[in-house]
């Protein structure tokens, strides 16, 4: 069985560590598992360009495959990458959700006029990195995040896409601008797709709400796993050395993770934390928040009405290098994740794998992931979140019990299992085509 696994997204991490998002980690970890599997013949592709960075990524990771297994332009350069980037940018701007007929017409005119010039500039491999010989039923193409380009969509090759969630379609209020463009394009093209991989039963249900182009049987659920970057750090010395950089004390902070955006519900998390009546009994206790900037003005909105004393209780750690995750997680009293909606919910699982008790939302996929190993609260109810925080805060024995449960449940999730379920999806397409 010949599988082409698209790794376009992995190149983004070369220029910025901030590109190492949850989706990046999923694609990378499944890739590492597939590379070790002998039941499939694995090919790698990058249909969205950025080849210079991708080559750097492959070299850094020590991934060396024969050229015949790399459907990646061989005659590449930074100038070609830049030209192709602008070419794709224009095509994306012409892809109008509200006016599909005119959009297709304009894209057709644009490609008819421009593609010959790109070919003259030596960008043929960028336009069609997957050769015609591979666009047959003998191959399966897996798009791991981005929409599939037209020449692949219209070919005989088996096609499977990963849709992590459809939050941007169901809850557009949580997103700015065109952040839904990847998802709606994937949904739009499902009538030409053989199967879909998604990451939870909840996401599967939501995908079916958004389209009639695919059946329940065509959607495969492959639960995720936490990276091995997340583990129980047992050295107090290592933990304390890291925490000193952020003004934190081991066991004297509650941890939460997420970009500063409304969907992650940090506002209610902060309000609930500061509303705890017993805070005066814990003068050193802080709420630590890991995550990128998210929406620019969100930080001031979160803290605008609080006193200086209250503000000093909130620590914005920001982006964290990989090697610091485990000490920061392991040093927390407990972990809080009050997101309104998740397709899966990796951060709680990461905390569980570090042996930290968790308090999570009772919404979307989170109960599916956490099971009976955590405490739940309604993310809309600040008083309930406060009450549940106080339960953990006042009860050390409960924290020990729930930490043990969380750690044991985290063992149910591993990338080997994710890979095997992905191969099941590939196999169903292969068998159908033969």
Automatic annotation (TrEMBL):
Pfam families tied to this protein: Glycos_transf_1
Domain of life, per lineage: Bacteria
GO MF annotations, alphabetized: glycosyltransferase activity
Entry keyword set: Transferase
CDD domains membership: GT4_MtfB-like
Glycosyl transferase family domain: residues covered: 252-407
InterPro entries, sorted: Glyco_trans_1
Designated name of the protein: Glycosyltransferase family 1 protein
Organism: Leptospira bouyouniensis
Highest classification ranks of the organism: Bacteria, Pseudomonadati, Spirochaetota, Spirochaetia, Leptospirales
